[in-house]
Design a protein that fits this description.
The complex is a heterodimer of chains A (296) and B (288). By secondary structure, chain A is mainly beta. A 12-stranded antiparallel barrel of chain A has the order 1-4-5-6-7-8-9-10-13-14-15-16. Chain A is built from 4 helices and 16 strands. In chain B, a hairpin with a 2-residue loop joins β2 and β3. Classes of the chains: A mainly beta (296), B mainly beta (288). At the A-B interface, α1, β1, β4 and β6 of A face α1, β1, β4, β6 and β7 of B.
Chain lengths: 296, 288
Amino acid sequence: MFSMSGVRKNALALATTCTMILASTPAWAQDKPSTDPNPGALTITGSVDFLNQYMFRGIRQNSTGFATWPAVDLGIAAYSGKGGLKSVGVNFGTWNSLHSGDTGADGPSGKIWYESDFYASLGLGFGGGTSLTTTYTAYTSPNSSYTTVKEIMFKFALDDSSRFGKAAVKPYLIVAQEFDTDVARGQADGGAEAGTYMEIGVAPGYSFSKASLGFPVKVGLSLSNYYENPETGNDEKFGFFSIAGIVTVPIGGTTSFGAWNIHGGVEYQALGDTTKFFNGGESNQVIGSFGIGFSY
Amino acid sequence: MRWSGTAIRWIVACLMMGLLATIAASPARAQSSTDPNPGAVTLTAAIDFTNAYFFRGIPQDDTGVIMWPTGDLGFALFSGKGAVRSIGINVGMWNSLHTGSAGSDGPSGKLWYESDFYTTVGFGLAKGTTAGVTYTAYTSPNGSFNTVKEISFKVAVDDGGALGKFAVKPYMLLAHELDGQADGGAHEGTYLELGVGPGYSRSKFTVTVPIKVGLSLSDYYEGATGDDTFGFLSVAGIAAVPITRAATRFGSWNIHGGVEFLMLGERNEAVFGESSHVIGSIGIGLSY
């Protein structure tokens, strides 16, 4: 008989086996780093991550157990050129959060599948390393822990590595708008009004031959009704501040199975008044994570 | 500004049409026979639209529009010339979205009726024979049914090498429910499916005529009078038309559609209210 813990163990064993197969891929497959296994216009990325805590833009999503995040993305490089518009890409993907604790298998629903998000992005690459990406996301909850949140998001990013080299900080700005909402429906904060969210961040990083380090820093703000306080009804501007350190170690280079990696990190979040309320009165949170990633 | 579900569906439809236009308009150099993906990972995906959904003859919904978005990732782990010619692992997801009584117009008000996850280990053997073991979790995000976990074994023979145009490509599928039940009955069931998939290929289209019969070996079609052995008989005609002549750097895309005639056993007839049904479907497929 299969239990869910058994299934998780089997999935973990399968992932471990796949990783071992990839790590032990014959030399002929690993000795051709210049041979791209996938020179076409489609790119597949996937990952499975394990965390002690899931915070969505500073809003706590579970208080017990751990979260597992399987995700997959299909990227389509629709255009590349040398004019003002350097590239056009479309991405489709699904991101999921499986919970063992109070909002999952141990919760009222008894179901592990807390969140399933679907998104479609249109990304435009411009000169000077700038890009503008528009994303539609539907945040759904298969175990009915919350009502579906629909959001349109705009991200402006600058890859300044060609200008600053190792000192590049790769700044970005996100503005996201919730729509199709009602009171306590279709909103990340479960509030009265649809919210508008802004995130400002940087993502400096360093690459070495055997590992890469990333130090993302970001702050999440409410431009309008994104962090409505359930006690006071006030919209709190400051949602959270986050700083993290992430280590990524490639597994076996690029093979005919693509490029795989193991990654892990620690994130510290300082919370605003509303997010502190959602966090059981605690004003900060430390999150540990590790996972397996894949790009093909 | 408020966006309705209809508006979102139109946006997605327009996005899909734009993608297809991009693929169809790919430069000639991109449509050459150069394989865009010579590696060991294969992606297949599709979205289909149909008027009714029967799972192995068990009625699920025949109201509104039903959409089946799917994605499968295949890993070719081994290929050789011995008794075992190939080993592969597939991981995939199959979904059913309903606008009718089992979905957005139903009690839950939610579109997402079914989401299945599966993992398959497949072995290619001599003489076109393949064997595969699949674990599947059938889940219902809108709470229409309890999760069904199943292990299945499939043996198939591609007899095209021996019989050419007259190949029928027979297969046998044996599935056993580990937890949960498709029929909502008292006991986990064991299912047997026998089928053939003869086809005819031309450069501009492919036609297949799959025929299959679904049987209960044990408690798979439990009804008021006990377990019904005969579940269904299905005969279909499916045409697939490639969108481009050769694989492009976006892979190989096709438009496909078909009609299926389904004859139901007593248990499924009692649930559905009719002894047969005709199902139409149309969709877009991708192989990369």
